[in-house]
Each structure stands twice: as C-alpha cells, then as structure tokens.
Amino acid sequence: LSEGARHDCCGSGRAFDIAVIGAGSAGFSAAIAAAGQGARVALIGHGTIGGTCVNVGCVPSRTLIRAAEAIHGAGAAGRFAGIEAGARLADWPALRRQKDALVTGLRQAKYADLLAEYEAVDYREGRARLTAAGIAVDGAEIATPRVVIATGSAPAAAPIPGIESVDWLDSTAALALDTLPRSMLVLGAGYVGAELAQAFARLGVEVTLVCRRRLLSEAEPEIGAALTRCFGDEGIRVVGGAGYRRVAADGAGVTLEVERDCAVEELRAERLLLATGRRPNSAGMGLEEQAVELVAGGGIAVDDRMRTSRPGIYAAGDVTGRDMFVYMAAHGGKIAALNALNGDNRRYDDSAIPGIIFTDPQVAMVGLGEAAARAGGRAVRMSLVPLDQVPRALAARDTRGLVKLVADARTDRLLGAHILAPEGADSIQTAVLAIKHGMTTQELGETIFPYLTTAEALKLAALGCGKDVRKLSCCAG
Ligand SMILES: Cc1cc2nc3c(=O)[nH]c(=O)nc-3n(C[C@H](O)[C@H](O)[C@H](O)COP(=O)(O)OP(=O)(O)OC[C@H]3O[C@@H](n4cnc5c(N)ncnc54)[C@H](O)[C@@H]3O)c2cc1C
User: Fold this and answer.
1) Could you tell me if 146 and 342 are in contact, meaning their C-beta atoms sit under 8 angstroms apart?
2) Is the dihedral of CA 99, 105, 109, 112 positive or negative?
3) What b/e string do you get for 113-130 counting C-beta neighbours within 10 Å, with b at 16 or more?
4) CA 244 to ligand 1 centroid distance, Å
5) How far is the CA of 325 from the centre of ligand 1 (A)?
6) Which uninterrupted H or E stretch holds 327?
7) Strand 206-210, strand 237-239: pairing
8) Element (H, E) at 317
9) Binning pLDDT at 50, 70 and 90, where does residue 472 land?
10) Residue 14 has what pLDDT?
C-alpha cells in the first residue's frame, strides 16, 4: 500500500482503505486484489452474492446448453455408418434442479466461502450509493478515500408498443422456467438470444428467432450466414431484418407483429423471450451528484486505468458498458483496485480480447473483422477456410463452419481471427497470443500444430493467405 493510502473512517470504529460496490466477478476481483496489497476493504453486495455469471449468466446457461447439445449429439450420431442413437428430454424439472445445484455449489465455493479466506475484506449487504465522503449503504455512511464501482448490468427490454401488457421472459427467467413452453419467440440475435434459442430448440421447444438485422450482427457476415443455415437445419426459424410493430398477449400466447421487406407478418408463440441487450446498473447511485460521467447507454466512463471522471472513484465490469465478458470484469476489477491503491500504474489490457458464443458450432473471435480492418483505408488480406478442408472436421463427419483470418496486406501482421466450428472456442487462444505478440500470418503458418485438431484450421487459414489450401498435403505440408 502506498504511503498515505490508509484512511481512518470517522466514527464507524473501522477504517477502510477502499470500498468496492457490487459483489460479482469484478467486485470480488477488486476486493481480493486490494486485500493482497494489505488494504482494509469494505465489499458491499446487493442481491445474490456472486452476481450475474455464477447465478444467472455463464454457469446456468452453459450447463443447459451442454445438456441440449448432448440431446442433439445423440440424434446426430447417425452420420457415422452403422450407428443408431437418439436422446430426448424426459424430465425438465430434474435438469433444472441439477443446474441449480451446480450454481449453488459454485456460488458457495467461489464467492461466499472465499470471504472467510480474506480477513481484510468486510462484506456487507445493502444497496450502496456514492457520497461526498465515500459511500452510503442503506443510509449508513462508510467514509473511504477510494471506491471501485462494480455494479454490473441487467437485461434491457426493447421498447415495443404493447410490451407492458405481455408477461415476457428475460434470460434469467427463461433459465428458471418451471415448465417448458411448446413454442417460444426469441427477440434479439446477439449471443444470449442465439445461445438460448438453440438450447431451447434442442430441448424440444419450437423456436422462432427474430431480430432487426441478422443473426450475430457483430460477427463476420460469413459466420452469421453459416450459423443461420445450421439453425435452419435444426428447425429454428430465423426472421431477420424485422421491424417490431407491436406485441400483444391473449390466453394462448403472444403475437408479435413485424414488418419486413415492406410486408407485415404476425409471429405467434406460447412465450416471448427478450434478449435485446443489457443495460449498465448505474442509475440511483448518486453518480451525477458526485460528477461521475456516463457514456451513451448509461455505462460509467473510464480511462485505460479504470479511473472515472472523479478522482478516487474507479469502475470495472459490465457497469462500464464495454467488454461485457466475465474475464474482462475480473481483469478490470483487479486493475481498478491496484491503481486506486498504488498510483495508477496499471493499464487495462484490451489489445486482444477473445469473444466466444456458445452456439453449436461455436463462434470464437479476436481482433478486427474485415470491415473494421478496412475502415481507415488500410489494405487487408483475407483467408477463408471452410471446415470441409480441415482433417479433424472430416474425421468427425461434421464440417459445419469456417475459419477466417484478417491480416494487414503490407506487414502481413495478423489483425483478426474468426472461427465457426464445433468446439472452436478452445482454438481461439492460439490466435489471441498470435495477435497480442504481433505475429504475421507467415509465422503462424510456420508454427507446428498437432494434426487432427480444430486449432490446425488456424494454420491452414494462415497458409491460405498465400496458397490454395486445397493443394496442401496432410499436416498442411
Ligand atoms: C445469460 C448470460 C450468459 C453469459 N455467459 C457468459 C459467458 O459464457 N462468458 C462470459 O465471459 N460472460 C458471460 N456473460 C456475461 C457475464 O456474466 C458478465 O459480463 C459478468 O458477470 C459481469 O460481472 P460484473 O462483476 O461486472 O457484474 P455482476 O456479476 O452483475 O455483479 C454486479 C453485482 O452488483 C450488485 N449491485 C448492483 N447495484 C448495487 C448497489 N447499488 N450496491 C451494491 N451492489 C449492487 C448486483 O446485484 C450484482 O450482484 C453472460 C451473461 C448472461 C446474462
């Protein structure tokens, strides 16, 4: 702890060097990093300890997605000659209970039980807001010179006429349904909408996915188009380019009226799931009064040291409105706490952030897409390898997907890597390291990769920047 960092808290009998608001991933990371510096930490949590990822995000959705994948995988086993198999969901409440038990166990082990391991961290429950002297928790003042705000985000509903009269689901409610509906309209085709649409379809729900633009509009267009075909093959209808006109509910379900290609269409289903984005939890925290600036969309503005516009106040995680991934929340929380205590010498590293979408095939990306790379007039080179050129996919008889690399045409530096492949998520880290360390596609192509792995597709794509991969022998020779 730097000289003068400790601050005696007036009147409370306990001195805190730093207060962390929000006991999710960013908040725990900040609190643990601060305790590691010898600081006395007040950690304030409102709602279920652990926040989004463990309770209503990554963990429950990932396990249900895996269960749905197991059902699909059994049905797809017939692609191998001589195999007959099949699986079906027989007991949704049992699957849900198993998911809930996983959540409870991980929440206990990775959050609640950890508190006892860090004596310097004083955990308090309550809703915190900033004050001139520090923070207030349900009216009680905690004076502290430094604060890290890590209050996360919440689902944001699209403003569709009639939505207030519909009992719609958000991702949290959908993951906790008592009974599965026969049919579901999923609105929004970002990662949450895409993942849950496919999972519910595989669990036996008739799913229509509706979006204003296209499936995964943030991903490369080739990936969105290929995944749309995969969804279609599984019976998921994707309705893109839709303007939402109005929505209404009756005893039998929900009707959504959309406009596409100058025609009006009515879409019906038993339940409506809104997956139309998330909004930072920045309201009602006294930010305006304390001159903490926000960006458009309500996120707290931070610089590369996680400093807000007000000295001594830092922010990290979803509440900043950017990089809404749990690992970036944890990274930002740690940087914020270390900088608050030690003089702002750490930089938030966003040089090569991997992004994963747990559909099947999985989408994994890092760095620039083609359009972003071209913006500003840069000359770029592309390589696109369909999975039917990748030995692993051929052996698995599952060639759904592609790999696309984006490189600087002048320097040959790798700028972006985009994978659509079954289990493609585990391969992206190779490209993350390549981009972070400034590798060229030639260097990536000359690196040894193990044969019959999905990661090998990256080598093939790197070689594809200068050669036709169809003319290569095995092991990309
Ligand atoms: C369905 C779904 C699936 C996801 N899957 C993935 C995934 O696979 N991989 C991945 O990287 N990310 C995933 N995410 C995103 C990830 O969960 C979030 O980026 C991450 O949890 C954000 O962490 P955080 O600490 O910023 O916020 P949170 O974890 O939300 O924590 C914030 C905490 O602060 C509390 N709080 C709010 N206001 C106050 C206040 N005034 N006082 C005190 N406490 C307050 C909140 O109740 C909450 O407990 C997923 C998200 C969803 C919704």
Assistant:
1) no
2) positive
3) ebbeebebbbbbeebbbb
4) 28
5) 9
6) helix 326-342
7) parallel
8) none
9) confident
10) 55
Give, for ligand 1, the residue of 135, 151, 348 to mutate: max count of ligand atoms closer than 8 Å to Cβ.
151
> How many CA atoms are closer than 13 Å to the CA of 454, on its beta-carbon side?
25
DSSP annotation of 151: -
Q: What is the separation of C-alpha 204 from the centre of its chain, rounded to a whole number of angstroms?
A: 25
How close is the Cα of 252 to the center of ligand 1, in Å? 34
Torsion, Cα of 267, 269, 275, 281 (10° steps): 120
Which secondary-structure segment (H or E) carries 42?
strand 41-45
Taking a C-beta distance cutoff of 8 angstroms, is the pair 158, 188 a contact?
yes
Q: Which residues contact 408 (CB under 8 A, 6 or more apart)?
A: 373, 378, 379, 380, 381, 415
pTM: 0.94
**d(C-alpha 375, C-alpha 140), whole Å:** 51
Note the pLDDT tens digit of each residue in 369-400.
999 999 979 999 999 999 999 999 999 999 99
Quick one: which of 263, 271, 322 has its CA closest to 295?
A: 322
How much is the pLDDT for 303? 98
- Judge whether 209 and 273 are in contact, CB under 8 Å: no
Q: DSSP assignment, residue 413?
A: B
**Residues having CB within 6 Å of any atom of ligand 1:** 21-27, 44-47, 51-53, 57-58, 61-62, 127-128, 150-152, 171, 192, 281, 285, 317-319, 324-327, 329
Calculate ∠ Cα 97-103-105, nearest 5°: 100
Ligand 1 centre from 377 Cα, in Å?
37
- Average per-residue pLDDT for the chain: 94
Confidence label for 157 from pLDDT (cuts 50, 70 and 90): confident
Considering the chain, what percentage of its residues have pLDDT values greater than 70?
96
Q: How confident is the model at residue 471 (pLDDT cuts 50, 70, 90)?
A: confident
> Going by CA atoms, what residue is nearest to atom 27 of ligand 1?
152
Q: How many angstroms does the Cα of residue 51 sit away from the middle of ligand 1?
A: 5
- For residue 11, give both structure tokens: 């009147």
- Does residue 4 carry a pLDDT above 60? no
- Give the pLDDT score at 274: 97
Q: Classify residue 437 by burial, with Cβ atoms within 10 Å: 0-12, 13-18, 19+.
A: exposed
